[in-house]
Here is the input.
Amino acid sequence: MFNISIEKVCMVIQLSRQLDVKVPPVDENSGSNPTDDMEIDALELRADDAITDELTTFIDDLNDDEALDLVTLMWIGRGTYTSEDWEEARSIAAAERVHKTSEYLMGTPLLPDYLEEAISQFGESCEGQALDHL
Here is the structure.
């Protein structure tokens, strides 16, 4: 039914969760040794954040059908549509596409929760998915 694999959806979920734990920088000019700071800077969301770059690139590299599926799944997960409304929701996603998909999705609070909820409605989950190969 999907044009996007569950593995790719799970990768978006995994990377989004890693971003969710990040906080705004506390000390913009920290020049100390990361070991001395117990690597706490790794939890700060900076402009050059590797996770942000990875997720943006991953979503931007999806083909149009995969990107539409991802938006449709997010809408289903947040309750805008139901799984039975798949075709209608996907058509609306295609018609209303204005922004880059990565910007739209990454600006959506609770994105990983919505995607998990959506795939569960289709009997899928990320449990046991090997995501290292993507």
